[in-house]
Amino acid sequence: MKQFFKQVDFGTKLFDIAHRQRTETEFEGYCHFHQSCELLYIHRGTGHVIVNEENYPMKPGMLYYFQPYELHLVHAETSPETPYERTIFSFDPVQVAAKLKSWDWMHGKFQRLWFQSLAECAFDLSDRFAFVEGIFDMSGLHKEAQRHEEQEERTLLLLMQLMTCIDEKATPLPPAIRVTRYSEQIMQWIEQHYAKGFDLDMLAEALHLSKSYCSRVFRQETGSSITEYVNATRIRHACRLLQTTSKSVEWVGSEVGLGNTSYFCQTFKKVTGISPHKYRTRGVLL
């Protein structure tokens, strides 16, 4: 069984979602890990999930939470009569933490899920199966025509509801801070400084690393360059501003650290496939 790093490319999105994926053919699974956080919810199916050398059973109503770079294996026993149906959503913890800052209690819960060692990663919600299925249905994840901002808000609300379920089921552990990867630290620094002119020297100095090591380790751990991540972060914030304000394209570019309007428009189109003006007028979902 191979170990596999599965890169999650968020682009301008806060979440990467696979809603009610259904498999009826053989599903052996494979060991893999991500640079992001991941939630896996089981609607239908049996099998097992292995993480941190622990083997957890799979059944409807199980919710699994994987921290960044946490190796896990999912194996489902499938057939047309017993399909494997699940919802998976991955998210960039840096961006989610920023979104949750307005809610002190929820932000604290999320910080602990992100950074602290956990007693378990599997949570049995089968005793409230109908309720959890209901919040998935009400989340609107199945509605493909939603605007970007609407889907982001609905998914964030679903995440907060699931975090509450996890909090009620979790076994408390003495506080123990998980060692974060350098790429996570780099992402946090970029989130705090993306609106300024990017300076690799400042980043390297803040992390007490050399510039070459910063660049090399980020690519090794995420599969992309620091510059690509900075641009994706800036354009994601630009998308939000284009949809939530009537400010000019020039102003939006300046707000996200791309003061040269021509370069901002080129970068925006390279990341999203369309111009800032078309993005605003279409209200597209990326």
Automatic annotation (TrEMBL):
Protein name as catalogued: HTH araC/xylS-type domain-containing protein
InterPro entries the record matches: AraC-bd (IPR003313), Homeodomain-like_sf (IPR009057), HTH-like (IPR037923), HTH_AraC (IPR018060), HTH_AraC-typ_CS (IPR018062), RmlC-like_jellyroll (IPR014710)
UniProt-listed Gene3D superfamilies: Homeodomain-like, Jelly Rolls
Keywords in alphabetical order: DNA-binding, Transcription, Transcription regulation
Segments forming domain HTH araC/xylS-type: 184-282
A GO term, aspect molecular function: DNA-binding transcription factor activity
Domain of life: Bacteria
Pfam families attached to this UniProt entry: AraC_binding, HTH_18
Organism name: Paenibacillus swuensis
